[in-house]
Amino acid sequence: MKFFITNYNNVKTIIFLLITLQLFGLGVFLSSYTSLFVVGESYRILVAILIQLSAIVLGWVSLFVIWKFFDYRWFRKNWVIVLMSISTIAVILYLALFGEAKGGAFRWFSIGVATLQPSEIVKPVSVIVSAYFLYMSEKKNDWKYLAYFSMYLFAILVVLYKQVDLGTLIIIIFSLWLLFICVRSVSTLIKILFTAFVVILLSGVVFVSPHALKRFNSTYKLWTGNLTEVDRRGDLYHQTNNLKALSYGGVYGSGFTHSAQKQNKNLPEISTDSVFAFLGEEFGFIGTTTVILLFLILSFLFTNIARATKDRMGMFIVIGLTSIITSQVFFHILVTLGAPTSGIPLVFFSKGGSIILFTMMSIGIILNISSKSIRIKRLKE
User: In the chain, which ranges are continuous DSSP H helix?
Assistant: First the structure.
């Protein structure tokens, strides 16, 4: 009985946290656009707000439909996994060849005034496909499924590298590495070797890609303090102004809609890549700490669902999706503090309907797994 009460309270708390984060995020998003009224860009801000609100509504509808009417065990069907595997690679490959370039990566589809970011689809789909391979490897103790997992992982690496999408690449690799570490049928030695392989592979990506190497060199200069005026106005303009915004915020912040960095237009991509710095300036240390704590609590509740899930594949999916959501948050914060990765939005705060929609769909899958695991437990008892 204690399990059911705890799980039910977890779901209520998750819904409450999602509402709180989205309301807070919507407020920050609206504040980031207030300066546009000064120059008379009312149409642009109206379109951005409508797209953001539409994504929130669609996200909630998707969450409840998946939670209440879907069955995650459908992902165990072989043809579903094959279709998802092929479509994942095909979508990224198509984007690399024909997608619209933004921020140095080919990862957008234009749909009228809106844009769709299919790389957001790749994150949860890659988790589900990998969860299936690792689950089957553990269940049947068959190494061929680990081989399928490795080939799928390598294919994602290749096509994402072609896109120069270092942020998405790191998030997916980190999440799939975490899933691999959880497999019971794999020895500790293999897990250590796989970890070393992932580290070497990512290091190789950095040194082979001029784009990535340039970012790491810039970060090294920033963290060691070896900056010149050319750096501050050039490659490190974004990072230095992010740090200035955080320092201007202090403990309590400058206040809602009172960001000096926004008014002076010193924060590039203020509603996307710089949104955490903007949040820190307007709401201060208290605001940023509150947001971090809310995301940590949300991740903790998801982790509780993973621990309570009887089905191993369901557990793998929950761990992977939780890792995707959480790592995006903390990688975005690291980028704000000067880390070299880029293009990682802050879910619920950054402009972009794709990340809101697919994050809410992912949470719907997590809640669906939670409800199905309770049903299975009841039947067994």
Answer: 2-33, 42-69, 78-98, 119-140, 143-162, 166-181, 188-208, 210-224, 229-233, 237-249, 260-263, 275-308, 312-336, 353-380
